[in-house]
């Protein structure tokens, strides 16, 4: 079972859109997918047509009251489930502040989850996707401690690049101290205008940085920039207001085409079938985090489209 955290501490870069639509694409490819909404804004929950009313059990109950995921999940479509969120999850940061081992609550729950249905266990899911809040707090740390892979959605702009170093440093610390299986699988370029000079230069700088990390003992040494680009598409922006994935809302649009291509790339298949994985840990995150920070300045803000 793959456990993928979709993370970027910067908001508005396409995390939720990617989590929901990549999950839906994988489900359509025959994978059994469970989405965990770890953002108190509950955008993934709303996107999939569930009202975050604060009354229904959610990730808040999972993390603070140890409710089994089986009691909280909802089936959204064939092969697709959701463990939703609501505003109560915002209180979890404070409520868990004094709890010993608060960073590994989700990891332990995933490891010990009871049967989901008759004869069915959590590890029968092919993939768990975790939609993380735009922060590096307790909720995001839980995702990093529970995950084996990290996907980083990134808008190819200067400010989106600027916070990448802190995110990579955080993954390195978690990999070194808590979760040695954690690795950064790759960067997903979202809201792309592929023909602009800035987008091309950001992509070049990312590829150069990741290429220079191949020999380092860091979680991103095998990372890549996914070749599938998520183009700007109004249908992707419209779909959440209808409570649908892009495949249920506008299956023939460019957004659906891009996410299907990304799903195939994630699966490592030209046609939808099965899954695979890799590993790496960190020993000296500081030096490479500084190098990551230089990416932002290499793609200086004075560049024009």
How much helix is in the residues? 40-55%
Biggest sheet, strands in spatial order?
A: 3-4-2-5-1-6-7-8
- The CATH architecture term is 3-Layer(aba) Sandwich
Beta-strand content bin? 5-15%
Describe this structure in words.
By secondary structure, the protein is α/β, with parallel strands linked by helices. The protein has one domain (2-298): 3-Layer(aba) Sandwich (Rossmann fold). Helices cover 40% and strands 13% of the residues. The protein has 14 helices and eight strands. The chain has an eight-stranded mixed sheet, with helices on both faces. The longest helix has 16 residues, at 197-212. It is globular and about 50 Å long. Mean pLDDT is 84; it is low at 114-122, 271-285 and 291-305.
For the structure shown, list the relevant keywords.
305 residues; globular; Rossmann fold; 8 strands; disordered C terminus; 8-stranded mixed sheet; 13% strand
Task: Detail the topology: elements first, then pairings.
Blueprint (H helix, E strand, L loop, with lengths): L1 E5 L8 H14 L4 E6 L4 H5 L11 H7 L3 H4 L1 E4 L2 E4 L8 H4 L9 H8 L14 E6 L5 H9 L2 E6 L3 H5 L1 H14 L5 E7 L7 H16 L11 E2 L8 H5 L7 H4 L4 H14 L17 H14 L7
Helix pairs in contact: 1-13, 6-7, 9-14, 10-14
How would you sum up this structure in a few lines?
This protein is an alpha/beta fold and 305 residues long.
């Amino acid at each position: 079972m793959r456990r993928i955290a979709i993370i970027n501490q910067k908001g508005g870069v396409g995390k939720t859109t990617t989590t929901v639509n990549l999950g839906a694409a994988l489900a359509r490819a025959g994978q059994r997918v469970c989405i965990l909404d770890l953002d108190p804004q509950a955008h993934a929950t709303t996107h999939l047509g569930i009202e975050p009313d604060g009354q229904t059990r959610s990730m808040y109950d999972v993390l603070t009251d140890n409710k089994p995921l089986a009691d909280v999940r909802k089936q959204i479509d064939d092969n697709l489930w959701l463990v939703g969120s609501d505003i109560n999850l915002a209180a979890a940061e404070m409520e868990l502040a004094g709890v010993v081992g608060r960073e590994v609550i989700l990891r332990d729950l995933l490891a010990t989850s009871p049967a989901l249905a008759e004869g069915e266990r959590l590890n029968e899911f092919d993939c768990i996707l975790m939609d993380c809040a735009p922060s590096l707090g307790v909720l995001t740390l839980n995702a990093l401690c529970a995950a084996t892979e990290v996907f980083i959605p990134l808008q190819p702009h200067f400010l989106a690049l600027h916070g990448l170093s802190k995110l990579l440093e955080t993954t390195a610390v978690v990999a070194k101290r808590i979760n040695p299986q954690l690795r950064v699988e790759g960067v997903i370029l979202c809201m792309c205008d592929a023909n602009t000079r800035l987008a091309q230069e950001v992509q070049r700088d990312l590829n150069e940085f990741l290429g220079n990390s191949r020999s380092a003992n860091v979680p991103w040494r095998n990372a890549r920039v996914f070749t599938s680009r998520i183009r700007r598409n109004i249908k992707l922006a419209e779909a959440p207001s209808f409570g649908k994935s892009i495949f249920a809302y506008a299956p023939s649009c460019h957004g659906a085409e891009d996410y299907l291509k990304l799903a195939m790339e994630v699966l490592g298949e030209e046609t939808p079938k099965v899954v695979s994985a890799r590993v790496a840990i960190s020993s000296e995150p500081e030096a490479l985090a500084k190098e990551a920070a230089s990416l932002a300045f290499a793609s200086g803000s004075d560049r024009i489209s």
